[in-house]
Design a protein that fits this description.
Layout (H helix, E strand, L loop, with lengths): L1 H57 L7 H17 L2 E5 L5 E5 L2 E4 L8 E4 L6 E10 L4 E4 L17 H9 L14 H6 L5 H24 L10
Antiparallel strand pairs: 1-2, 2-3, 4-5, 5-6
Helix pairs in contact: 1-2, 1-3, 1-5
Length: about 230
């Protein structure tokens, strides 16, 4: 029995270390999300400034600001790799840009993407300040995860969305699996690689600890990897 206890304790200790590593990786993804949001806003400002410069140069109908247009095209290409965008060049040379169907750059301004920070986890969720009422706790998230995320629907585009999905919005444990239907699991932890991995690992450890407790320490419950 002592050997079983020793081996089990060692395994559980290592499993908890893996669980902690997963949480650390979530934090790394969160840092990348923050940097991507900053870069998206920088590109928005750059496109807006280039719009103004291009309009001034081409206003007389004589010159074409080819170099500036190339810079703007490069900024649009980089932005398209980060988020799903649509853009349209207007009669005066100004390019209007939308992200996930929401205005981002127009003739008047740049609508910067905001960062909503969870008090408990510190996880950042991108949102639109201009469409939100923070005084009432109402935030308009950039991404809608209530729809199917699929290449068939063009809803899986952009690095930022992929990072948010991969990280998830909390730290999962066995309770995200047990007592839930397959559909509920798929709509929650199952949507995120990190959350599903955490939940499945913790469920395995939970079952092992419960089995050991039933043998050595009946009526003692396991409360999760934390």
């Amino acid at each position: 029995q002592n050997l079983v206890m020793q081996k089990s304790s060692l395994f559980i200790s290592r499993a908890k270390a893996v669980y902690t590593s997963l949480q650390n990786y979530q934090n790394n993804l969160n840092t990348k999300i923050s940097k991507d949001i900053d870069r998206i806003n920088e590109l928005g400002k750059k496109i807006y400034d280039l719009n103004e410069s291009i309009v001034k140069i081409e206003a007389g109908g004589v010159e074409t600001a080819m170099e500036l247009r190339d810079q703007r095209d490069n900024a649009l290409d980089e932005l398209a790799g980060l988020v799903h965008i649509d853009y349209d060049e207007k009669y005066d040379g100004t390019v209007f840009v939308s992200i996930e169907g929401v205005d981002f750059v127009n003739r008047a301004q740049v609508y910067e993407m905001g960062k909503s920070v969870d008090d408990e986890t510190g996880y950042i969720t991108p949102y639109w300040p201009q469409m939100s009422d923070t005084n009432r706790g109402q935030k308009a998230d950039v991404f809608n995860f209530n729809v199917d995320i699929s290449s068939a629907y063009n809803t899986d585009i952009g690095e930022l969305k992929a990072l948010v999905m991969q990280r998830g919005n909390y730290v999962a444990d066995y309770r995200d699996i047990e007592g839930k239907s397959r559909q509920d699991y798929n709509d929650d932890a199952g949507m995120s690689v990190m959350l599903s991995t955490e939940a499945e690992l913790d469920q395995f450890v939970h079952k092992l600890v419960t089995a050991i407790n039933d043998i050595f320490c009946p009526n003692i419950e396991y409360t999760g990897a934390d």
